[in-house]
Every structure is written in C-alpha cells, then in structure tokens.
Amino acid sequence: MRIFTLLSVALGLIAAPLAAQVALPRVQLPQVGPVLGEALDDLDETRAALRRTADRLARERLRAIDRLVRRNPDAIELDAEGAPARRGELLVMDVSTEALGPAFGAGFTLLSREEIEGLDMSVARLGVPAGLDLGEAQLLLAQLLPMAKVSADNLHFQSGNANGAALAISAQSSASTAAPVGMIDGAPGSSVKVTEARGFAKGAPFPSNHGSAVASLLASAGASNIKVADVYGTDKAGGNALAIAKGLGWLVSSGSKVVTISLVGPNNAVLERAIGAARRKGVVVVAAVGNDGPAAPPAYPASYDGVVAVTAVDGKRRALIEAGRALHLDYSAPGADIHGRNAKGKRIALRGTSFATPLVAARIARAMGHGRSWRSALDEEAIDLGRKGPDDTYGRGLVCGTCKGR
Prior knowledge:
five-stranded antiparallel β-sheet, alpha/beta, 10 helices
C-alpha cells in the first residue's frame, strides 16, 4: 500500500499543470526524485522477493519428487521426462494386441488390456523388459511402435494442505438444485456424506484428509449427488494416470455432469484423451493449477484444452504466492482462510488451490441445475481482481468470494 501511495503522490505532482502550480501559495514542494526513487526501490525489492519465493518453491518441488522416488523404489521411478510414474509399466493406445509384436520381440510383456468404462477408450499396460529403466523403455517402445501413443503411468499429487489443526463443530447441511458432481481424489471419511465412493487403486476407497476436505467444500457450496473416485487408496503409486482415467470414466457413465480434480501432474497422453472424451460427452472438468509456484511447469489436467483451470486467493483476496500455473486460467476462488472437514469429521484450516477448485465446480453444477449457461452464470458472479479484465493471476475473476467452507 505504501508503494502505491508514494507512486500516486509522485505521479500526481509530475502531471500537475504549470498554471495550477503557479496559482498555489508559495510552499516548499517535496522533491519528486527521492520519492520516486524510494518507491521504485521498494518495487524492485518486492519483485526480487517474489522471484526468490518462486525459485524456492521450484526447488522444493524437485526435492519432494526425489524423496518420493527414493522412499518408494519398489513402486515409483522417473519417466523419460523426469516425472514420477508407476515403476516398470508403460501405457499404449492406438494399437491392437496383434500389432504389439515388435514390443513383445524386444522383451515387453502385456500386463492387461484396459477398456475404460464410459469413455470408449482402450489402453494396453505393458511390462518393461528386465535391465531397462522406465525412461529407456519408454523411448525404445516409442521407436518400436511409431503409430502408437506411448506414455508412462504418471503420478498426480493433491494440491493443498488439509492437515490443519482440528476443532470439533456441528455439521451443517446445504441443499440446492444442482447437476450431479463427480470428484477424483482420495475418499472422504464417513462423516462427510457423499452418494457413492468407488476405488481405483490398491486399498481404495480409503478415507483421506484431502478427499474429505474437498468433498466437504463441495457440499458447503451447494453441490449435491456427489460421487467420489478414489485414485489413491493405500497405493504407493496412487494418483496415476490410468487410475484417474478409469475413475473419470466411471463418473461419466454414472451421470456426473461436473467433475472436480484437485490433483496436478505432467502432461500425459492417456489422461488427455480421457478428459477429451469426457468433454465430448458434455461433462465439465474443473482442475486446480497446483501449489508449486509460478516457476513450476504448467499443471495438468488444468492445462488441457477445455478444462476449467482454477487458482486461489486468501481471505484478503490476494493471490496465493505458492499458486502454480496452467496454460490458461479461468477463475479464482478462496483457497486460504477457509475451513473444511478431515477424515475424522473435524473442522480444519485449509490452504491451497485444491480447495478453490471444488467451490468453482459447485457453482458450475448449480448453474447447470437451474438450466443456465454455467459460463454466463460464473462470469456474472465473478469479481474482477487485478488489472481490468481476464488476467494470468485471477483469470476471469473471483467466484464464491464469500465462501468460507464449513
């Protein structure tokens, strides 16, 4: 605030007409040069601080990936792009089992053929030959099958902190007319009521704090008929692309019209195709931009075409400094100074773009339930923040600005 005040005073003095200055009483005017210099120095310090924060978040992201791989060498390894994925497995599309001959000749094995419910997709899971790491095998398989889409089974991570201090509080209820909502995450605890939860990972559905918080925020913002695809369970390599695609297919086939995904990961061919198939069936997919900071790579699935990408603000409507980025940005919503429920049903403080995303999804579902264009409804509600019009920090504006969770 001090910076902008100083700039306003200084620029106002510079721009004042000469005649107006002459007509004023003879007073000692402040020296403009030092005032502007001090303000610009402050701006430079602010920019430098933001750059340091972005660099720190980027380093923390890489360290977190390294720790994950080191702690789970039996389940996770890096793909050809350096992104974590399920160990020893590759996913292949656009090729028949018969056409996999060159891969079999090189030592790859067919683990399974996955027909993804609701999305008209078929994916072959191939085992990697002994002696090859995942990245090497991925590059070799792409050469052996040039007409196929080859990808690792990349992992995706929850984009928010749902481990805040808990406080017992009575549950609230919210009822409204809204289109059915699907959620891809961990499963909620029993105290957070949803219509159905189904598992797509080892040990799933298994209650998680993150999934419970997201589900409680959906309900608090007016969503109803909430179905949850648990893609984590107790699986060390949970949150993988194939599990997300299968969970999305189930949600689409079971009638969800809006699907919220508070997970982030790298660009993945299988997940991209799954989301494209869901969108062609009229489903709106909403996703978080993540919390790895502005220097991180673009977040997926938020960056896929047509996905509603969501960032977060705090209680003072300031963009979260740790918010990541996507190739496009649609809306912002509260992602700090709000509360949700953990797996035990306790009220906890939340922070992250994970928790802004279900608020936007609930608003979309409510608009669809009332037969409205969801885009028009959200644009009408959105509060323009930052520079006038859509921007890369707040998108088209703040949605659900008064939402505080439950």
